[in-house]
Fold this protein.
Amino acid sequence: MSTKQDVLRLLYSTVDKPLSGQDIAEQLNLSRTAVWKAIQQLKKDGYEITSSTKVGYQLSRQTDLLTLEGIRSHLGEALQDWDIQVFETTTSTNDLAKTYGASGSRVPTFFIAEEQTAGRGRLGRTFLSPPKSGLYMSICIFPEGDLDSISLITCATAVAATRAVESFIHEKIGIKWVNDLYYHDKKIAGILTEAVTNIEAQKVDALIVGMGINLHIDDAIIPEDLKPIIGSLFSPQEIPDGFSRNEFVARFLKEWNHCYEDINAGKRDFMEEYKDHSIIVGKKVNVISGMKTYPATAKSVDNNGHLIVQTDDGAIHSLSYGEVSIRPEN
């Protein structure tokens, strides 16, 4: 870790009070000159740091640059065994995670970017990922459980995301089976779960869980045909004071890890939250499965994350994959 990163980490850890240059120098075993140079570099990078000869340096809470140090400062002691990689731009965080998952390493790793140039959702669809408007992230883990447990990961991710979002806005987020989050009747997030498989061993070597969330996307850059569908958590003009992307990411990661630990322990408690947030249960839907589309009514979501639907002839079907769209009410 560089001197600049060390100083930034220390400023994040004491954001509520200033630190003198001497304190920083002593804690990091640096010269006062090295501390001053690091502070100047951080200011040049865009960090708001107040300086006073009497009280020292203090990082402003309004600084919302997405950084490893910022995320770690909000994680505390959680996920110390994880690697966290932060990018300003990348093609796709899921692509980064899949490459890493096939590399032979076994360290759980989190990838996050401010922008994706080739973001994608389910079925190869493009996922709009403009810079400074959202968070685009992927988790790479190495599961030991069976495929039935793995199928719950998408549901767990949706629950973790709703918990993180609701902790900031105090309004209820909707989940559309299986992988979309809705706010004020518009999609604000999508989840894409993929795997790195070993065909010879017939097992999953790595599991990739990607999520993109629109925090404050400008309506002007949304294509006209998507404007009735795509939304964001805030408008660019109404971002709450004190909202921190680093803190949001840390909350999401901690909640995600709690859900993942529950899965590994055979617990399904989070599925009750998933069901409670469902916007599709009780609705008339069109089910898209492979090349086939048919009408049905969404009856429930079971504890394995399967959608239970009833077709017009009364038959009950359990869907572990596929896609559904809500039919307009007459």
User: Anything to note?
Assistant: DSSP finds nine helices and 14 strands in the chain.
